[in-house]
Amino acid sequence: MEKSPTEDPSNAGKTEQQGAEANVPKSGERPDQGTAPTNDHYRPDPQMDRDQSNIPAPDVANAKYLHPILAQPPEELTGLQLEERAKVAAGVTAVIKSMEFSWSEGGVNRGTRGLLKMNQKDGFDCSSCAWPDPDDHRSVAEFCENGAKATASDADDKAAGPEFFAKHSLAELSKMTDRDQNNAGRLTHPLVKRPGDNHYSPIEWSEAFQIIGRELNALDSPNEAVFYTSGKVPNEPAFLFQLFAKQFGTNNLPDCSNMCHESSGAALSPTLGLGKGSVTLNDIYEAEVILIIGQNPGTNHPRMLTALQKAKRNGAKIISVNPLLEAGLNHFKNPQDFMNPLKALGALLGDGTQITDIFLQVRVDGDMALLRGIMKHLFEAEDRNPGQVVDHEFIAKYTTGFESFEQNIRNTSWEDIEELSGITRAQLLEAANLIANKKKIITCWAMGVTQQRQGVQTIQEIVNLQLMKGAIGKPGAGTCPVRGHSNVQGDRTMGIWEQPTKEFQDALGKEFNFQPPYEHGYDTVEAIKAMYKGKTKVFFSLGGNLLAAGPDTEVIAEGMRKQKLTVFVGTKLNRGHLTTGETSLLLPCFTHADVDMQRSGHQMTSCENSMGVVSQNKGVLVPLEGQMMSEVAILAGVAIATLGERTNIADWVAMTENYDVIRDHISRVIPGFENFNEKLRRPGGFYLPNGPRERKFTTKNGKANFTTTELEKYTLEPDQLILMTVRSHDQFNTTIYDYNDRYRGIHGERRVLFMNREDMADRGIKAKDLIDITSHFKGEKRTVEKFVAVPYDIPRGNVSAYFPEANPLVPIASVAKVSNTPTSKYVIVTVEPTRKTVGAPLGIRLAVEA
Predict the structure, then answer these.
(1) Whole-angstrom distance, CA of residue 672 vs CA of residue 488
(2) Cα separation of 417 and 374, whole Å?
(3) Which neighbouring-strand residues pair with 474?
(4) Burial class (CB in 10 A: 0-12, 13-18, 19+), 421
(5) 3 lies in a domain?
(6) Which of 332, 403, 620, 720 is the 20 to 30 Å CA partner of 824?
(7) Distances from the Cα of 183 to the Cα of 6, 163, 336, 588, 693, angstroms
(8) Which parts of the sequence belong to the Molybdopterin dinucleotide-binding domain (predicted)?
(9) Are 566 and 681 in the same domain?
């Protein structure tokens, strides 16, 4: 192994050759991952010290009349065309769409170069989902349609520079659709909106840093600042961001993880000792049974379908649990097969690989009852076949709490299970029979579970199922939370967390010679509340789009307006950049695909995928002309301008000039990152320690813990329905690439509500009727107008709509227990035909005129 570039500067930016395959685990083997880490120390009852006071429901429907800058997407319809929903994911169409996006954004040469270097061992990490790359061989085209769209957007050769912002006011920009905002081009120059201005205008970097430093240092307390992070941010800038916030004096570090997989961490830490999944990609290939719950891999993690296809060819059975039968859960045509002469014809004709063996169309929020039904059947099977279904040896050696858990499951009535889940006892028996005699079982889940009222408890039932089968800590078995953004898991590892452990803070303080704060800060929901109530004055966003990602859109917007300063570091314009504080800065940074040249040479960063592999990210595209800076350089400039002599300025300069200096710091602070620079240069990266993967359960009692949960019922008023928000196919998180969702048969429109046909008939609603949707929470109402009703195969009593359009319906106070995650998968709504109104209501007009 060559010396670290911090010891030998001539090695800066260099990597080992891609062809080397050292340290690659073979099928059935555990990866080399070092020593298991300590417990995550998740707070057992965090609700106790959170703000429980009420925020009144905003006037969502009339907000467009109250504020010239729209916080919600415009209501103008873009032209719905309906087709039959697709039964097959990917195939030729996915290849064509990938090329169309890539070439239309960055041109043929630039777009193609970006695609061919994406997810390669000597290339850059896809900036969309965190699905892992193969440990061994990688194909020439190691990307999916989703990643192609994200990279095409990053490779955009159009510029949204000072001339663009001089031409368009913030109000005008807010009336553009989210798609058109994203397609305006790359941000190229630092911009400022000064007090009273309605345009962003150019500013020098030095003045921008001075403004941030001045406003931060004028605060009465460091806790009056909020530092928000996107999951796209690589490890190195994420580490610097939390370091700066803590040197400044606060743990107010909310991030997008608070809104997606926080429930996973809250459930896994006390039960297994680590808030991450336990499986590797090779385990997927080895599994006998895979459960996919609350996840749509065809749209949100398309490369997962390749792994599922391989598992199916190895004999695996797949049980899919979802309110919608998504195309990716049905059949899959692997685009990679078109490059193989032996498979090309089969990929072109027919329906491809059948993914799901048993589909359970669960009601929204009914997954917990469904899991109990499966486990109740398994206990009955164990009664008939003692010692053949439940792994008593594993339970006795590694776990606690089994007796209470077993009694809880046996005491649950079939009536409650069927009513809450919407699945019959016979259907659940079919699934249980598939599991009963199998030992290699993996359960995958995503935001369809984590954003429920009882998301944490539902995941604990998933863990219970895995534990009762002894299906954890061995090849082909374990837990698999499938993360969204490319480095959302890595950002948490780097210390982006509002409730850091004492061990982490002690190590950070020792490394950088300062006293970090130990009191917990604001998570995303608490930060929104604090901003709304005027408890904060500065909001700093490193990437992301909180306005469009968070719940209760108009509450977030009002909180933004109350800030003295808002700072947005980003690559492209989004709606969140337009609803601002008194002063606002829009600072352009590089993407994953951009070449990042610093004083020591071509820099690389790193990301951690869903399965705990840390690998390099090294851009290949020449950045557009302009004044963009790397996230690392921006943060160093902010830190020096704000902290001055309170920090080691020379170290910040050194970290900016050579990112290996950052990694050397990380190697001494975070367990598992020892020799970080050396390990990162291995082809494919390295695995982080993972106790549950090796049956080392680093909980407080050293055991894997069964959980006895409470199954809550709910009652609805007449005409009320349960709404869940979802993504469209031409969308990744809050970034909208186009108005289509071809797998669901939607073209040219996003303001749609998927409804059961019988629910539509009961309300006298026909296909394509215009409707208004009202959410109901503790006597409060929020209404969004002008959606289009679409009949769809969805359980009766359930409806679905896209976010961010439906986010204004999600109350800020409606959160999952323990994790405080917004309940975007459980919103009580009513639906009625759109009111025929012209202009603002009289009361609103009078208020505006006054």
Answers:
(1) 18
(2) 10
(3) 477
(4) buried
(5) no
(6) 332
(7) 40, 16, 29, 15, 42
(8) 721-827
(9) yes
State the CATH number of the domain containing residue 449.
3.40.228.10
Strand locations in 752-826 (E): 752-755, 770-777, 780-791, 798-802
User: CA-CA distance, 494 to 229, in Å (whole number)?
Assistant: 12
CB neighbour class for 148 (10 Å; exposed up to 12, middle 13-18, buried from 19): buried
Nearest-CA neighbor of 105 among 144, 149, 48? 149
H-helix or E-strand containing 66? helix 63-66
pLDDT per residue as tens digits for the range 541-575:
999 999 999 999 999 999 999 999 999 999 999 99
Helix crossing, 402-411 with 367-384: angle to 10°? 100
pLDDT score of 753 more than 80: yes
Question: Per residue in 792-820, pLDDT tens?
Answer: 999 999 999 999 999 999 999 999 999 99
Element holding 408 (H helix, E strand) = helix 402-411
Q: Would 154 be classed as within a structural domain?
A: no
Report d(CA 490, CA 437) in Å as an integer. 36
pLDDT per position as a tens digit, 329-358: 988 877 776 556 556 566 666 678 899 999
Q: Residue 836's domain is classified under what CATH number?
A: 2.40.40.20
Is 50 exceeded by the pLDDT of residue 846?
Answer: no
- The whole domain housing 639 covers 165-254+495-685
Residues 756 and 618 in one domain: no
Q: Buried (b) or exposed (e) across 701-720, using 16+ Cβ within 10 A? A: eebbbbbebebeeeeeeeeb
Whether 64 and 72 have beta carbons less than 8 Å apart is answered as yes
CA distance 191 to 567: 10
Does the N-terminal peptide bond of residue 517 adopt cis geometry, omega within 30 degrees of 0? Answer: no
Rounded to two decimals, the pTM is: 0.94
DSSP string, 372-401: HHHHHHHHHHHHHSTTTSS-HHHHHHHEE-
Instruction: Kindly state the helix (H) or strand (E) to which residue 333 belongs, with its residue range.
Output: strand 331-333
Number of domains into which the chain is organized: 3
Q: Are 193 and 583 in contact (CB under 8 A)?
A: yes
The CATH number linked to 532 is 3.40.50.740
> Over pLDDT 90: what percentage of the chain?
76
For residues 294 and 425, state if they share a domain: yes
Q: How many CA atoms lie within 13 A of 601 on its CB side?
A: 13
> Do residues 363 and 451 share a domain?
yes
- Closest alpha carbon to 454 in 706, 692, 714, 797: 714
Q: Which two tokens stand for residue 819?
A: 């994790």
Amino acid at 625: E
For residue 177, tell me if it sits in a domain: yes
Q: What are the distances in angstroms from CA 135 to CA 120, 283, 605?
A: 11, 12, 19
Q: Scan for tokens 């190229």, then name that residue.
A: 188
Last residue of a domain, one of 481, 509, 538: 481
In this predicted model, what pLDDT tens digit does every residue of 149-179 receive, in sequence order? Answer: 778 888 889 999 999 999 999 999 999 999 9
Query: What confidence score (pLDDT) does residue 220 get?
Result: 98
Query: Is the same domain home to 468 and 574?
Result: no
pLDDT in tens, 134-144: 776 656 566 67
Contact 810, 823 (CB under 8 A): yes
Q: Are residues 501 and 647 in the same domain?
A: yes
Phi, psi for 692 (deg, rounded to 5): -55, -30
Nearest Cα to Cα of residue 553 among 178, 76, 160: 178
The dihedrals phi and psi of 125, each to the nearest 5 degrees, come to -80, 135
pLDDT grade for 5, boundaries at 50, 70 and 90 = very low
The pLDDT assigned to 850 comes to 41
Query: CA-CA distances (angstroms) from residue 484 to 299, 335, 548, 808?
Result: 11, 22, 16, 22
